[in-house]
C-alpha cells in the first residue's frame, strides 16, 4: 500500500531507477527522473510507506503479484494520488512520459502472456445459462434445472467469469441427472396430449391451512361482499372441527375467502387442490378485492392492497415446501371491487400455487380474545382461483419434435418369442398431496417409430447437434453420436432409447456445456453466442444462427440491428435481472433479515418491490438510452405503492412499478439511493459507511478498494444509540495504515448514512436502547413500534479531490458531474460480464474508446451497449 | 314325501319350526331390524337437527329403487324399503346395513350414516340436555353432535347453534351426562353455566 510521504527528498532514487532498468531497457531509459524525484523517498527499504519498498521490488513482471503491484503504481500515479497532494506536484509532462513508458512495459508483458491463447479461458455455462439454454433449445420455458446443479463461484464480480467456472465430478454427475430430467420431459410418451382441465379452487380448500385459520378468526368467508350467513366469523369461540366443516361444505359453497393474516412461519396459504401432474403451460386466473373489516362488518378498504401468487414445489411426501419456489407476481386487490388477473406460466410436476396477503401487516387473531369479531383492520379477499392446463397448441410438443422431428408414434409391441428391442422406460405418473386433479388413464407404451433407424438417427442428429452446440458440427463428431445409437440398437434398445443415449451424451458433452470460441477474433457463430448469452443469457435463436451461417453477423449494421432486436425481445429481461443481480449485488437481497425490533415495517413484499425497482430502473435507462448521470442521479423513480410509501412519495398505489416524478427535495434518484442497494450493503441491523463506500467505489466508480489489512478489527456500529458510526470511524482512521483507503471509501458511505438498512430515509439513527420516542411516519398503523430515535445522522463529507458535500443530494451532483467516469465503470462491468474475463491492462485503451464513442454519440447507456458489441474487445476471445 | 319320520315327530317338528320362526321374529323385532323382503328399520347418524331430515330425504330421493318410507327424528330411526329382487337379495341384514351406511356416507360427504336399530328398551333411555356456547354454524353442530354420538350408550342426539343446546337420549347404565360434558369440554366446546 502506498501512503502519504513525510515530505523528505528522495533518498533511494538510484535504486528505484536501477529496478526499472531491470524491468525493461526501453522503459528504464524513459523513467529515471520521475521515481527518483517523487517515489523512492517514502518507499525505500527504511521508510517503506504503506509496506512498499521500491528498492527491493521484484523486476519479474511474469510474477502475477509483481505485475499487479506495478499496475497499481501506474494507476495511483495516473489518478494523481501519488505523489500525495501535499508534496511538490510533478510536472504533468514528466508524469505523462513516465506513465506512457510504464504502460508500455506492462502491456509488453501482457502481450507476451496472452500470446498464443485467447484472452477468455474456455468456460462452461453457468447454472442460469445452462437452464435457459435448455429451456430455449426444447421450448420448455419453465423447466427447473438450476436447483439440480452445484452453485457457481464468482470472480471479478460475475459468475460467468472463466476464473470462477471450475468443474468437478459433482458437476458431471449432476449434468447427467439434469440431462435425464430434460429428456424425460421433452419426449412425448403418449399419442395424444394430456387432457387439459380447468379447476376452480377456493383458497379455503380441503387439506389447506386457510380453512383452519378462518375457523380461528384470521379470516372470514364472504358472500356478496358480506359475511357468509352460513359461516359466521369466529368470535369468542372458534369454529369446531375443520373436518366437520369440510364435510358440511362450509368451504366449497362458492364463498370468497377474506384473510387478515399473511404467510408466516406457521401459515402457508396454498391452493392445494391443484398439484401439477403434467409439466407444461397452465393458465392461472384469480379474482381479488380488498376490504376493511370492522368486528363483523365489511367496509371499503383504505386503498388498493396487493396479493402475491407464487409457485411452491411440494416435497416428496406432498406435505408442502413451506417457501415459494418463485413469485408469479403481485396483483392488485381494489377496494370492494373484484378484479380478475390472469397469468400463463409453466408449472413443473408437484408444483402448486401459493398465496399471500402481501401488503397487510402481520396480524394474528388466532387465540386472541374475540377473534375476528373483535378485530378491526384491512383484509384481502380471494373469490377463486382457476387453474387450466396443461395447454398444448400441438402434439407432440416442440420439445419432442426437436428430438424426433415428425417421426410417427405408435404403441410399442414386441414380437412373440423375442426379448428385444427392449421397451423405453417410463416413469409412473402419480398424484401427491391433496390434489384433486388426477392423471389421465395410461394409454400404454407409445414411442417413436423408425423403419430406417440409422438413417433417421443421422438426420435427427444433423439437425439437433448444431443447434445444441451453437455452431456447425463436423461430420466426424456427428458420426460419433450416430455410432452411439448404432451400438445401443445392437445392444437391444428400441429406437427411442438408443437416440436418448446419444442426446444425453450430447447434453453432457463439452460442446454443449462450454462456450467454445476460436482463439483471437471470434467467428460469426461464436459472436452469435456472445451476443445471445449477453442479452438473453441463453443460446442464439434461428435468426442469429442464420446470420452466422451467412457470415454477415459481424457487419456493423447487422450487429447494430441485432442488438436492437435482442434488447427488444422479452428474453432481454434475463440480462437485466442477471446483470443487475451481480453488478448491484441484488442477488444478495435476502442475505439477511432486518432486525424486527428496529425495522418492523420490513416485509418480503417490500423486499421484492425494492428489487423490482432496481431492475425496472436499469431497463428504463436502456430503453430510453439515458446518460450515465442517471446511474447516480435522476428526477424520477420507478416504484409501486409499497415502495412509494416507503420512500415517502404520495399518490402511488397498486402492485405494479411505474415511473413517478420525484417531488422536490426528495433524497432519491439513481441507483445510489435505491432501497435494494441500501439493503445489500447493510447487515440487517446496522449500516456502516465502509461497505457502502466500498460498494460505490467498486460498483459505481470502477475503483476496487484494497482489502482491509490483517489484524485490524472491524468497526461494529452501536445500536444502543450512544455513539455514531462516524465517531467510531474517526478513531479507526487515526491508524495511518487505514487512513488512506478510508479517505476514499468513507465519504460516499457517510452520505449514504441517510438511509437505513432497508433503504428508508432517516435523519436520526434508530435505537433499541436510549433515545426519544419515534414517530410512526409512513409505517402501517397495524405494525407495533418499539424502537427509539438515537443520534442524528451526519451525511456530510469531503471527497478525495476536496469537494465537500453536505448530504446525499450534493454527493449525487458531484458524481454526476463526471459522466465519463461512470460510463467507464459501466463499460468495464459490461465488458467483464459480456466476455467472461477480467479487464486486462491492455484493454483500457479499448474501454476508453468505447466511452469516447458513446460520449460522441450522445452518451446514452443503450449506445454504450452498441459500442461495446462493436468493439474488438467484445469480438475477440 | 315320507323320509321315515314319524307323524308325531313331523308335528313336533312343525311346531318346532314355527317356534323357530317366531323366535326369529322376536329376535329381529328386538333388534328392530325387519328383514322381511323389502323393509328395514335402521338408526340414522348425523340427524342432529330437524332440517337435516329434509337433507336426508333429498339424498335418498336420488337413489333409484330405494325409498325412505318413514323417518322418526326424535328416535333417529328410519325405515328403508326396496325391491328385493333388485337389491340386497343375497345379503344378510348386517351386510345390508353396511351397504346402506357406505352409500349414505358417500353421498352425504360423511355427514350421515346408518347403524342397526337400537336394542335398548325405550324406558331405559334418559333424555339429557346440555346448554353450550359457541356453536357458530351448522358444521359446528355436526362436530358437537359427533362428539356425543360416538359415546357408547348415546342412542340419539341433537345439536342446535340457534338454541345453544345439545340433547341426547342415553342408556344410563352405559353412560352419563357428566361423561358427555367431559367429552365436549375436552374437544373445545364451552358449556354454558346453568
| Structural shape of chain A | flat
Which sheet architecture does the biggest sheet of chain B show? Answer: 4 strands, antiparallel
> End-to-end span of chain B in angstroms?
74 Å
User: Into which percent range does the helicity of residues of chain B fall?
Assistant: 25-40%
Give the radius of gyration of chain B: 21 Å
Class from helix and strand fractions of chain B: alpha+beta
Structure annotation, total helices of chain A: 29
Give me the Rg of chain A, rounded.
Answer: 31 Å
**Runs of chain A with pLDDT <50, length 5+?**
1-32
Strand content of chain B: 25-35%
The whole-number mean of residue pLDDT values of chain B reads 84
Q: Give me the strand/helix succession of chain B.
A: HEHEEHEEHEEHE
Write up this protein.
Mean pLDDT of chain A is 90; it is low at 1-32. Chain A has five domains: 13-114, no CATH class; 120-194 and 397-430 and 438-516, no CATH class; 197-391, Jelly Rolls (Sandwich), CATH 2.60.120; 591-815, no CATH class; 820-875. In chain A, helix 4 (64-78) runs antiparallel to helix 5 and helix 26 crosses helix 28 (861-870). Chain A is flat and about 90 Å long. Chain A has 877 residues and is of the alpha+beta class. In chain A, strands 2, 3, 4, 5, 7, 8, 11 and 13 form an eight-stranded antiparallel sheet that branches. In chain A, strands 6-12-9-10 form a four-stranded antiparallel sheet, with no helix packed on it. In chain A, strand 22 and strand 23 form a beta hairpin. The two termini of chain A are 33 Å apart. In chain A, 37% of the residues lie in helices and 13% in strands. In chain B, the strands form two sheets. Chain B has a four-stranded antiparallel sheet with strand order 2-3-1-4, covered by helices on one side. A four-stranded antiparallel sheet of chain B has the order 6-7-5-8. Chain B has two domains: 39-116, 2-Layer Sandwich (Alpha-Beta Plaits), CATH 3.30.70.100; 122-191, Alpha-Beta Plaits (2-Layer Sandwich). Chain B has helices spanning 7-30, 50-61, 93-107, 138-149, 177-186, and strands at 39-45, 66-72, 77-82, 113-116, 125-133, 154-160, 165-171, 190-191. With 194 residues, chain B is α+β, with helices and mostly antiparallel strands. Helices cover 38% and strands 25% of the residues of chain B. In chain B, strand 2 (66-72) and strand 3 (77-82) form a beta hairpin. The chains are: A alpha+beta (877), B alpha+beta (194). The A-B interface holds A 230-232, 234-241, 244-250 and B 109-111, 133-140, 142-144, 146, 187-190.
